[in-house]
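note to self — DONT lose this again. spent like an hour looking for the file last time. sequence + predicted structure for the chain T wanted, 341 res
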Amino acid sequence: MTLFPTTVAGSLPKPSWLAEPNKLWAPWRLAGDDLAAAKLDATLIAVKEQEDAGIDIVSDGEQARQHFVHGFLEFVDGIDFARKVEMGIRNERYKAMVPTVTGALTLKGRVHAAEARHARAHTTRKLKITLPGPMTIVDTIADAHYGDRVKMAFAFADLLNTEARALERDGVDVIQFDEPAFNVYMREVSDWGIEALHRATAGLTCTTAVHICYGYGIKANIDWKSTLGGEWRQYEETFPALAKSRIGQVSLECRNSKVPMSLLKLLDGKDVLIGAIDVASDQVETPEEVAAVIAEATKYVAREKIVPCTNCGMAPMGRDIATGKLKALGDGAKLAREKFG
């Protein structure tokens, strides 16, 4: 097994012919069959660009979805997308117009089958597909049916589990659940958030992961980070519970963040996806800077448990910058292998 196998948090920028560049939630530039075909073309490009950069566990780049949460919600019945309300997201960090749950939640069918199968057919490397976590979904949608945030989260967890099991049958090696809400509602993580994840991962034999970051490099998140002080210790409250969980990997933010690396000790026993690429900056890291983050992590995490990664998704970033950062990640891990291998 390769020491320090590299991966990405999930999303990569879309080609300009598929969606408007440098924008989160970018509008599609095609429709119908042309859009469906273009999504698969973009998925193949994303896989190949990761391979060229030396990424060991590749993703579909989330090329077939506009948004990491709503890309899943589009395939769920019981949601009225025409009935939008303004809601505070991530404990009122910012406002968003969100659709409303108006009835019992059911899946319309498969969600990510096309891109997962296409990626699987075109790479021999390990393949990761991401899904939104239950807590983050219920923090990004209004409820006019369940009347209980936890009950609705578990209803979504059942749908996520159905899709996750199908993705495993498609040949996906790693299924990651994105839970930025775990850095906001820390008490709820232990109360019900991890149990909702367990419901979402029930019966899976592939590798499972949870991604907990401080968000995309957008203004609302950058402004929030500036209020967190000299040390960001949110992880301290959730990592002990995650260490006891059945989730195999935890993905977190390290590069250019104020997270004390010593907190990684709280994840003893887990594979730790070390965010060594800053997604809130257009400055491309050097391989030496990436290797330095990995080296610091080895003080607190067993070497064989370290998976160098990006801090978060790179969807709103310029493609040339993202490509440079991917290469820095691959080259930096290679440097670290030479030092520690």
